[in-house]
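Forum: Protein Structure Q&A
Topic: Joint prediction for protein chains with partners

I've read a bunch of threads here and the consensus seems to be that you should model interacting components together rather than docking separate models afterwards. I'd like to see that in practice. Below is the full input, 525 residues plus whatever partners are listed. Could one of the regulars post the assembled result?
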Amino acid sequence: MSDKTAEKNHEGKPVPFRGGGFLPRPKKIVAPVVFIALIAFWEFGSRSGFISPLVLPAPSEAFDAFLNLVNTGLLWQHLAASLQRLLIGWFSGTLLGIIVGTLIGLFSLARSGLSPLVSAIFPIPKIALLPLFIIWFGIGEGSKVATILFGTFFPTVIATYGGIDNVDRGLIRMGQSFGLTRMSIIRKIILPGALPAILSGARISAAIAIILLVAAEMIAAEYGIGAYILLAGSLMATDQLITGVALLSILGLIFAWIIGRAEKYFLKWR
Amino acid sequence: MDLNLRHISHRYDDVEVLRDINLDIRRGQIVCIIGPSGCGKSTLLRMIGGLERPTAGEVLQLGVPPADCLNPLTYIFQDFALLPWRTVEGNVSLVLEDHPMDAAARQEIIQDVLARTKLSDFRKAYPRQLSGGMKQRVAIARALAVRPAVLLMDEPLSALDSQTRELLMDDLVDLWEKENYTAAYVTHNLAEAVRLGHKIVVLSRRPGEIRDIVEIDMPLSARTTENTELEAIQKRLWQLMRDEARAADMELVDE
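Posted by a regular:
Agreed with the consensus. Here's the joint model:
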């Protein structure tokens, strides 16, 4: 059924469209194209002498340096050393952070005692503490792991108790009204409710962990990506330096991908 | 099991919220509590279920709840309060997990309440996949699972659109016809109150006092939408509430 009076009037102009837009959507094809174009331009610039090899080596040279690294077997030694520090430091920092964050989120005493401390230590760049850690934990693995642990601990604490603070009070009250035990409320309502915040905290702390890893390895390490980059820098071997940086980028991307998968799996209810 | 509210008064710091409330909630009866917004009716309901403590007065349980009752005073909330990370089944299961029973017995209860609320086909669905009415049905199923002695309903239909509200209201009536549950039902909707209440308690604006208690003897099943007797009662309730509601509306909120 249509409105008869409307049908009779054919004169008049259409209402101009003013909606739409402001909705950027990812287009799959664009990213690889940009990436390849940039590398091609860079390679072309280096070969034509437009980019001086002293300033920036050609991508192909950096790739050669990478192959060299693979062939000599040094890649695995560097990667193994770095990954070990990264995983131990990040994992224990995150675990301790979640525990302390939960305590601050749940108990008044922990909140009043620990949260000012956390706020005071959080903004310190942990690299500044590295010399102190070397004195405390020795020049070996201890100080490196401790730096990463310390650096990832604080953002995790803050993300965790922030997440707990944001859990819907109504759900907690529901749990109480059905007579759930305190442990059940924490395990089944509060922690799952804080999980989105904890996971986005993990994303941030993973990035911090990589920064601190390189910084720690630059001070004193035989193996490790940071040590490799430092050595390349002091030898002016820019091709190796670029390779090292690319490895760090890939490491970061893999970490982000893993956390992304974890989010998809744990937060599928959203 | 009956409930008896004796001289309940409550204040938040220097704001008096409730003043000397005396009320009986008898077995098999639905008591509706109505009043203008901010009159403390939800606070009163939280006190009945022991989620909040009144400044003065007490809520007494008269008699013991039935032996198979897992959670005598059970709420149904306005915002449903379902865990978004659990399925329909999981949400019902949540309130049984802390009680000693084997998995089979738990499954049996879950199947039973989901069947009674016509949710069996949605067992594996997550709350975000359900409409508002469905979510509230899950919350009702969850409440039934613990075999409550008294249901405490805090504006259970207020977050729903009017058609869904109508449907769910019918469900609540059907359920009462079958099981004769006892309930305290807080609402600001007079139509809901006259449709469901055996006893309607009218609260004044803050500080909430009992202005009037209206008893309706008509059986729930006889209460159809166009019923002159009910309309007259509803009109009377509205007259009681109108000035209160207007005055409450004009108040500044200082918090």
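The interface with chain B takes residues 168, 170-171, 173-174, 176-181, 184, 188-189, 192-193, 195, 267, 269-270 of chain A (CB under 8 Å).
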